[in-house]
Amino acid sequence: MSSQTDSSPLLCSYWFRPDGTAEKLEWQSIAQWQPGEGFLWIHLDRYSPEARQWLHRESGLSRILCDALLAEETRPRCDIVRENLLLILRGVNLNPGADPEDMVSIRLWSDGQRLISLRGPRVLAISDVEERIQSGEPLLSSGDLISLLSSRLIDRMGPVVDALQDDLDGVEESLIDKADAAARGPLSDVRRQAVALRRYVSPQRDVFARLSIEPLPWMSENNRSHLRESTDRITRHVEDLDAIRERAAVTQEELLARSQDRMNRNTYVLSLVAAVFLPLGFFTGLLGINVGGIPGTNSSIAFTVVCLALFLVGAIELLFFYFKKWF
Which residue ranges does UniProt annotate as crossing the membrane (predicted)? Predict the structure, then answer.
């Protein structure tokens, strides 16, 4: 990004001449720009008090627009009044230590001559756009800049969705041979991330679809064509996220079914053991009561006879279970 001072509310600003070439501006130079001299892009830090003050007092935007651009919680939206565009987009969070599904917002307003954008956490797609500008790529209108930013936001989403698919593939492969309870954590994480991403990616698809058909005079047919392509690409991401959620749900059901089946088998084995020892326990309990008249009390071989009888009864039970195909 641009090397503005830490106290500056300006992250970057460019004046685009009619031929598409760009000149980087400092914060003090923005006020010197005049309409009709190409278009101006002002990119501000939403957390900066000076940026908030400038937006309310010097930008010329209504209070409603300022509040929309500075709102804490936003969802993708596209509002058009006459030739003015309010656009709120989301991008995956690729900042160090952040979760990609904790998507960052970029808020934009444009009347065709000025494009004002704000962000909180860093949006790497903005860095991509600035690199393209600095490399000399001509941008003739705000529509060119918006369509380029939209494309870069979607480009950044692709690897994140692919990584989710790879994670899910790994979990599914680990369950082919063995149902491992340790896979429940990664599986739940994949499903949670897919749900969190889809929460914003799906409405953003609708935003691009609407923007591609709106008759804004400063939006060229080439811009609309690029936005339609962005709509198709983000639709594929939404479909991939839906597929990930469904696969994760099916895999989780399979994991639960295997766990339940294993528990049922263990319960069945314990039931068979109990069925074998129940009559044996009855006989030993009967012979162990403390009353007179128990047979074999004075016999030296009575214990051996009782043990053999118990083994015989147990063998008969096991044969019975075998012929009944209970195990």
Answer: 268-289, 301-323
**In angstroms, rounded to a whole number, what is the distance separating the alpha carbons of residues 1 and 256?**
48
Q: Find the helix or strand (DSSP H, E) in which 116 lies.
A: strand 114-119
Write out pLDDT tens, residues 167-209.
988 888 877 666 566 667 788 889 899 999 999 999 999 999 9
Give the span between the Cα atoms of 121 and 15, in whole angstroms. Answer: 24
Output the pLDDT for position 324.
77
pLDDT at 145: 95
Q: What is the pLDDT of residues 252-280, one digit of tens each?
A: 888 787 778 888 888 888 888 888 888 88
Instruction: Give the C-alpha separation, 35 to 316, whole Å.
Output: 101
Indicate the CATH number of 10-257 among 3.30.460.20, 3.40.605.10, 3.30.559.10, 3.10.560.10. 3.30.460.20
Domain boundaries, the chain: 10-257, 266-323
Residues 267, 268, 274: CA angle, nearest 5 degrees: 90
Beta bridge partners of 118: 44, 107
